[in-house]
Prior knowledge:
Helix content: 40-55%
Radius of gyration: 21 Å
Number of helices: 15
Amino acid sequence: MSQDQFSRLFEFINRHIHLRADTEITVEANPNTASANSLMQLKGLGVTRLSIGVQSFSDEVLDHLGRVHSARQAIEAVHAAHDAGFGSIGIDLIFGVPGQTEEQWNNTLATAISLGPEHISAYSLSLDKGSQWYRDAKDGRREPPDDDSSAKQYAAAITALASHGYDQYEISNFCLPGHACRHNVNYWDRGEYLGLGPGAWSFIGNRRWANTADVERYVSCLRSGITVQDHDRDETVNSEQAALEILFLGLRKTSGVDLAAYGALFGEGSLNSLLCRIGDVERDGLVVIRNGALMLTRRGMLLSNQVLARIIT
């Protein structure tokens, strides 16, 4: 979006939506487009939090990922965000990239920490089925991610970030005290949200729906006074689905799922069924019950998809 478009967007928001004084407003930015002028403008518009898609501080890894920015641009973007006055800056990193060495990953972590962002997200590279990388890996033209290497790099991130005061509050997210991302925490707490724009999802009450992803159709519907909702992606969430969602979302948080609250919501029978299902997973050292909450162990976090599949099915 251009600076003019951002100004118009915020003018619209302030005209139609009452924002509390402590509202957290996050904008995502790529290092190659995060200029000093654009960041100063965003700060002036009321943006309180900036999330920068760094991915790596290694030019070699960035090139392998197909990113268009350099490590130097990423460093300059973080400095520019500090200079613009942002008090809550987040950076995204990716580990488990095929060919990425431990030295490259450790250097990326060290650089990230030295820049002093308030929030760091560390995501394992995953290949979406529709991506070119997925097709190349399936056909043997490109190396797929290695689970052992990913596990070592993830463990290195947890250790390095913890030693510098970053609290791991979710599988992939770390922050300095008071800087957990409210937007993301709301998803993991299964809170309500309103999505605006093509393809955006909303969840209010027990209903979840999406807008049409087709931009031209979206604009045409608005101009014609027709709903922009995609009727094929509209569902009413029943109690059984809600219970599963609370489990697979809540277990992403290091605080886990409050078992007493789970029982109060879905009944003692549902809670007892859950406790029976986690028996084998608990014995395998993948989950633990601590202070009345069901949570993943560090090994469980590494294998979270497998753990969730075993608990939910």
